[in-house]
Write a structure and sequence with these properties.
Elements: H1 3-36, H2 41-67, H3 73-104, H4 109-154, E1 158-165, E2 168-174, H5 176-182, H6 186-189, H7 194-198, H8 204-215, E3 220-228, E4 234-243, E5 253-259, H9 261-280, H10 286-299, E6 304-312, E7 317-323, H11 325-331, H12 343-350, E8 354-356, E9 374-380, E10 384-390, H13 398-441, H14 443-457, H15 462-487, E11 495-498, H16 499-508, E12 516-519, E13 524-527, H17 529-547, H18 551-561, H19 570-577, H20 586-595, E14 600-605, E15 609-614, H21 642-653, E16 656-661, E17 667-672
């Protein structure tokens, strides 16, 4: 027998013995009055009926205490103490009064009655105070229970009331939030093990450890625990274990689960977004970033119907640069958007993101009959717009919208970086190109200066003037080209210039061997005169170097490549400077025509620009694109920059340029100058 059972038997037995003792006295009084004194039976029974009933009730109460094992030991102990204390107190007081009355030789019943009444009043007062306090405590407890019950029923947290039976956490009650989050019916969870119901297999050891701590009466909190719903889905939660009694080492607990699945997923998506941003900034082109953005939205944000539209300044429209496969399956190639045509343009223009909950009811939608019902539109400032759609209306929440805007900001940064890097790379290439151009274009005036310097040393004083002109030309080239290299800009300032005058100056500054220049008519175009002269000089040099057929001219051409000091004839230069393409006399003209083996270069205006052509060997059609690239040359000692420079100058003016075959079989360079 346990200690609790022993206490219960002793307490109940003591009360029953007390009841039996006083019942015996009452029964003896009935016998004495009826049998010995001859009192009427009815009066005797009426006199002792109530005391006898109370005596028997005491006996029955003791027997109940002994037999009912569910009674708490504390309750039994308190009940026994108060019963015995009341009996002893009343007996002591009556015995005290009765003793002195016997000593005095006079029994005074009214005194005994008054004392009994006083004892009853005091007992009633004590019971009344106790009962009042008990009822007040019960009312407070009832209020607290109501509050706890309201909290239990209405809390957004999932709460389970758990009792440990043989170490197993058995569910006694759950609140509605628990049923909603975990998807159980109340009947399928009550009375079952909490661990077996919601702890996943791979978390069994962790669940057992937490159960062991809770069974010891610990109060604790654990974050990021994973639990399983009735459908097998996993939720991330914060678990709080609250024991019913802070003083008990074992007993019932409340298991409080706070669902943080959405927050956990948000943090994961934010982390993944930062990872994707690091990848975005490594991509070197805006178009490549657009492709990567579509992938990021699909894989990181787990959204669908994605497209990135980039702004095209030439068409002043937003064109699709990248889109997901489901967009192509649903719409084919996404349409482009212009001013006022769609919400996408408004978002791009205003720079403010929008969430269209239902496209069918939005007055600004592009297509109210679209299969896409809801859409997120995020501006990519200055670059375009990111579109994310869904076939259901109201498909996105605040988290989706927030993450889409964060991704949009990251994409903007990546695109700005790619654009900056592209500009820097272009500027570096341009700087390298200009460095090569400077060294290439300086060779002609340097060769002229060297040639005339040799003549000056031989006594030709007029040659000094030619040397000075060549040096001035070199200074101009250096100044202009370095300025353009520093600015890295297209040619914006142009003026009307004479095609014939600029071409003539260029011819005079070029080592032309025995070549001849022909200029058709008078024409004026809008150009930078210095850059146009540079264009002609490179074309003339190319014609002389690659178009001459006579041995003498080839020798002079080689001299040009190697910086020959032999200047062109005064007669030829004077003729060119005065606009003539032949010597000064008919006899000389016939002789020149008969003896002329050098290349003839012709400059002529056209309706939309001008042409420069020669009668040399020409450029094969298969090489016409290649010859415009930097460094391309067919000569062993060539630099390969001449025609690349021509292309740069044409592009700087905004002109188009193409290469054809001339009527004489040489090369023909056609420039379209109409802007």
């Amino acid at each position: 027998m346990s200690a609790d059972s022993t206490k219960r038997v002793l307490a109940g037995g003591g009360i029953s013995v007390l009841g039996t003792l006083v019942a015996t006295i009452t029964l003896f009084d009935i016998y004495h009055g009826f049998a010995l004194q001859g009192d009427p039976v009815v009066l005797t029974l009426l006199e002792n009926a109530l005391p006898l009933f109370l005596n028997l009730a005491i006996v029955a109460a003791g027997l109940v205490i002994v037999s009912k094992e569910s009674l708490q030991v504390g309750f039994v102990t308190r009940t026994t103490k108060w019963t015995l204390l009341g009996a002893v107190s009343l007996l002591s007081m009556i015995g005290w009064v009765y003793y002195f009355q016997v000593r005095q030789g006079e029994i005074k019943p009214y005194i005994l009655f008054s004392h009994i009444v006083s004892m009853g009043a005091v007992a009633g007062l004590a019971v009344g105070v106790y009962d009042g306090q008990r009822r007040e405590r019960e009312a407070q407890l009832a209020g607290e229970r109501d509050k706890i019950l309201a909290l239990f029923e209405n809390s957004s947290d999932c709460i389970a009331e758990v009792e440990f039976v043989d170490g197993r956490p058995i569910v006694r009650e759950v609140n509605p939030s628990f049923l909603d989050v975990f998807g159980f019916e109340r009947s399928t969870i009550i009375g079952h093990s909490l661990d077996e119901a919601i702890v996943p297999e791979d978390g069994a050891s962790e669940g057992a450890e937490l159960t062991e701590r809770a069974s010891r009466g610990e109060q604790f909190e654990v974050e990021n625990v994973v639990r399983e719903t009735a459908d097998g889905d996993e939720r991330v939660l914060t678990l709080q274990v609250v024991p019913f009694s802070s003083t008990s080492s074992t007993g019932d607990i409340y298991a409080v689960y706070t669902d943080i699945t959405a927050e956990h997923r948000y943090e994961q998506r934010i982390t993944a977004l930062h990872e994707s941003t690091r990848e975005l900034v490594t991509i070197g082109s805006v178009e490549g970033i657009a492709e990567a953005t579509v992938t990021a939205v699909k894989e990181v944000l787990d959204l669908h119907y994605i497209s990135v539209h980039l702004y095209d300044p030439d068409t002043h429209r937003l064109h699709s640069a990248a889109y997901s496969a489901d967009v192509e399956e649903l719409l084919g190639k996404p349409p482009s958007f212009g001013p006022g045509e769609a919400i996408a343009w408004d978002v791009f223009e205003s720079g403010t993101a929008r969430y269209v909950e239902d496209i069918h009811t939005d007055p600004d939608s592009y297509n109210k009959d679209s299969t896409i019902r809801s859409e997120l539109l995020v501006p990519l400032q200055g670059f375009g717009v990111l579109l994310i759609g869904d076939e259901e209306p109201h498909a996105f929440d605040d988290t989706d919208f927030s993450l889409a805007k964060i991704l949009g900001a990251n994409v903007e940064v990546a695109m700005e970086r790619a654009e900056r890097e592209a500009q820097l790379e272009q500027q570096n290439e341009q700087l390298e190109t200009f460095t090569s151009i400077v060294s290439h274009d300086l060779r002609n005036p340097l060769g002229v200066a060297n040639g005339y310097l040799e003549l000056a040393r031989e006594g030709d004083e007029e040659a000094f003037e030619r040397v000075g002109t060549a040096l001035e030309r070199m200074e101009e080239l250096i100044e202009n080209l370095l300025t353009l290299a520093r600015q890295g800009e297209a040619i914006d300032e142009v003026m009307p210039v004479s095609l014939k005058a600029v071409a003539t100056r260029a011819w005079n500054n070029t080592e032309t061997a025995d070549g001849r220049l022909e200029i058709d008519g008078q024409s004026t175009i809008e150009a930078d005169p210095e850059r146009l002269q540079q264009l002609f000089e490179n074309l003339f040099t190319n014609a002389v170097e690659h178009g001459s057929t006579s041995p003498s001219s080839r020798t002079q051409t080689d001299a040009v490549e190697h910086g020959s000091t032999s200047p062109p004839s005064h007669t030829q230069e004077d003729a060119v400077e005065h606009g003539s393409t032949s010597p000064s006399s008919p006899a000389q003209e016939d002789a020149a025509e008969d003896d002329h083996d050098g290349v003839t270069v012709r400059v002529a205006p056209t309706e939309s620009g001008f042409v420069v052509e020669d009668d040399g060997t020409g450029i094969p059609e298969s090489e016409r694109e290649a010859v415009l690239t930097q460094g391309y040359t067919t000569r062993e000692n060539g630099t390969g920059f001449g025609l690349a420079i021509v292309q740069e100058i044409a592009n700087g003016h905004g002109w188009s340029m193409r290469i054809e075959a001339s009527d004489a079989g040489g090369a023909r360079f056609v420039f379209e100058t109409t802007r």
